[in-house]
């Protein structure tokens, strides 16, 4: 089994071969395709070897087999690729939001997962840090963290809401200044 350094060196080599495949003509492309297929087979073989290793090491102590597999970046990626990841995207998004709490709290923002539907995670951002809108850098970090936690998501839809002061409702200015009987009042 390759160690982590050797494995990531192999990942870079595989990516390089795939890049070459796209840019080369017929005969050379076939040769590169064979090399790329061999490199991919090695990656899959290494992931499967890790799965076997985790299964053999399970003796009732420590992490469960599923935890070990989902905590291993290569194996987790393979599971996602084949739609076999045992942790649903909603749970992974909630966990990522939980890990972001200190970062968000320092910016007076709270994040709540509303739903995951049709590949989109809907997240509500609230708090006093939302007055005037959440900084785009904060929004980008939230989106990046959630897409990293659940890469099968198509996108993350954020909605920023300022914290309400004393539970009062927003009343449009036009409703306060409209004359009685005016159609805008109503």
Q: Would you count the extended β strands for me?
A: 3
Query: N-to-C terminal Cα separation, in Å?
Result: 72 Å
How much of the polypeptide forms β-strand, as a percent range?
Answer: 5-15%
Largest sheet: 3 strands, mixed
Our Rg estimate from Cα atoms comes to: 25 Å
Number of helices: 7
Low-confidence stretches: 165-186
Q: How much helix, percentage-wise, in residues?
A: 55-70%
Shape: globular
Strand arrangement within the widest β-sheet reads 1-2-3
Overall tally of structural domains: 2
Mean pLDDT: 78
Name the helix and strand elements from N-terminus to C-terminus, one letter apiece: HHHHHEEHEH
Structural class: alpha+beta
Topology readout:
Elements: H1 4-23, H2 26-57, H3 65-71, H4 73-81, H5 89-105, E1 110-117, E2 120-127, H6 136-149, E3 155-162, H7 173-177
Parallel strand pairs: 2-3
Antiparallel strand pairs: 1-2
Helix pairs in contact: 1-2, 5-6
Give a written overview of the molecule:
The chain is of the alpha+beta class and 186 residues long. It folds into two domains: 4-81; 89-162, 2-Layer Sandwich (GMP Synthetase, Chain A, domain 3). It is built from seven helices and three strands. Helix 1 packs antiparallel against helix 2 (26-57) and helix 5 (89-105) packs antiparallel against helix 6 (136-149). The longest helix has 32 residues, at 26-57. The chain starts with a helix and ends in a 9-residue tail after the last helix. Mean pLDDT is 78; it is low at 165-186.
């Amino acid at each position: 089994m390759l160690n982590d350094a050797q494995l990531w060196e192999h990942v870079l080599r595989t990516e390089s071969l795939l890049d070459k495949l796209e840019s080369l003509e017929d005969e050379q492309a076939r040769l590169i395709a064979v090399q790329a297929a061999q490199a991919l087979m090695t990656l899959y073989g290494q992931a499967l070897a890790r799965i076997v290793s985790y299964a053999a090491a399970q003796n009732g102590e420590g992490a469960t087999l599923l935890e070990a597999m989902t905590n291993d970046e290569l194996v987790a990626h393979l599971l996602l690729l084949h739609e076999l990841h045992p942790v649903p995207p909603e749970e992974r998004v909630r966990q990522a939001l939980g890990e972001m709490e200190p970062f968000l709290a320092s910016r007076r923002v709270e994040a709540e997962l509303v739903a995951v539907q049709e590949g989109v995670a809907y997240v509500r951002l609230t708090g006093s840090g939302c007055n005037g809108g959440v900084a785009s850098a904060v929004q980008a970090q939230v989106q990046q963290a959630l897409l990293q936690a659940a890469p099968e998501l198509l996108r993350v839809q954020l909605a920023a809401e300022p914290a309400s002061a004393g539970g009062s409702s927003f009343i449009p200015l036009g409703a306060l200044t409209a004359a009685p009987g005016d159609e805008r009042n109503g």
